[in-house]
Write a structure and sequence with these properties.
Blueprint: H1 3-53, E1 76-78, E2 81-83, E3 96-101, H2 112-117, E4 121-123, E5 128-132, E6 160-162, H3 171-188, E7 192-195, H4 206-210, E8 225-234, E9 242-244, H5 259-278, E10 302-309, H6 313-321, H7 323-340
Helix pairs in contact: 3-7, 5-7
Length: 341
């Protein structure tokens, strides 16, 4: 083979090798491109399938008919405690009402431990269980101990309030039934209700009762109750419904400057509605009892109700048969008061 033929053969071989190399590179690139495309398609198909299998989340519907629905979206830290405000469906904070069913378990039926747990103390000098009638002027929760207070006490009385003064037999059940009925209607109206007692086996001290005016019963905070309704029944041979009016000097912390006026307005509104709903006569307010311990300890406007006479057979019959109507009337009186004050 001559040199010329050899050179031609080498050129042909080189060209073949170049073409083969180019073809191989193209084949590899095409194969990688196809793999990438197939992988992308696989991922897209899996994503679409997952979306189809995912449940559809519908936006939550507001319950327009439930005006008392609660939300607990806001948690407010106050001091060392946590207060969770209650809200109605409109997003407005619920007003707090304290319902105090007067009296309770007889002191003679309570052990010393029960009395202590309910907030009473034993006074060695007086020889009785009870509590002080006032706080020191301008304070809250600091018992007067017989001095440094307004001394709004009964004629010839003292700052000491013996526990046995609150003992009753029929009245605790009457008061509790009326309070529970009022709670039901107030809650239906959208209020938050705090009960000072819910059974006749309880007999909280006045200190403990008024603590319900504060968030979590923490009297180091500011009271958040809009009103305090003290529910009692009268005795002494009379008939009809009334409330005890405030008057005189009150010095406990937190009370508004128009504490007396607001309290008496609240009591009058409730009494008028109770009389109309129950058929009990609408009596004039009871005066000359401005010294009552709750008047001297409550930090918010208070209505002290004396509904019917439990020692009058006719009134007692009404109290036993009409507690639902009486409770509704109490709630309506509170509602009207708060809408106008």
């Amino acid at each position: 083979m001559n040199d010329k033929k050899l050179r031609l053969l080498l050129k042909a071989a080189s060209a073949f090798l170049v073409i083969s190399l180019v073809f191989c590179i193209y084949a590899v690139c095409r194969n990688n491109s196809q793999k990438k495309y197939m992988e992308e398609q696989r991922l897209a198909n899996e994503t679409k399938l997952a979306e189809l299998q995912m449940p559809t989340l519908e936006p939550e519907q507001e319950n327009e008919n439930d005006e008392t629905a609660d939300t607990e979206e806001a948690i407010v830290l106050e001091g060392d405690s946590v207060s969770v405000p209650s809200y109605n469906a409109a997003g407005t904070a619920k007003k707090v009402i304290v319902l105090d069913a007067g009296h309770g378990k007889s002191s003679s039926a309570m052990s010393a431990d029960e009395k202590k747990s309910e907030g009473y103390v034993y006074n060695e000098s007086k020889g009785s269980w009870g509590e002080w009638r006032h706080y020191k002027n301008g304070t809250f929760g600091e018992d007067c101990g017989g001095s440094g207070c307004t001394l709004t006490a009964p004629p010839n009385g003292s700052c000491w309030y013996p526990m046995g003064n609150g003992d009753r037999d029929t009245e605790p059940s009457v008061n509790l039934n009326n309070a529970l009925a009022a709670q039901k209607y107030l809650e239906q109206m959208g209020y938050e209700v705090r009960m000072t007692r819910t059974s006749n086996e309880e007999n909280p001290s006045m200190n403990m009762r008024v603590s319900y005016c504060f968030p979590n019963n923490d009297t180091t905070q500011t009271p958040d109750a809009a009103a305090y309704i003290c529910i009692h029944s009268n005795a002494g041979g009379g008939s009809g419904t009334s409330y005890i009016s405030l008057g005189g000097a009150y010095e406990q912390c937190f009370i508004p400057s128009d504490y007396i006026e607001k309290s008496n307005t609240l009591g009058q509104l409730i009494n008028t509605k109770v009389a109309a709903a129950s058929g009990l006569s609408d009596n004039s307010p009871i005066g000359s009892e401005e010294y009552l311990i709750l008047f001297n300890k409550c930090p918010v406007p208070i209505a002290y109700m004396e509904i019917g006479f439990f020692d009058n057979s006719r009134d007692l019959g009404v109290l036993k048969s009409s507690s639902d109507a009486i409770g509704r009337a109490i709630a309506e009186g509170v509602d009207e008061y708060l809408k106008n004050n």
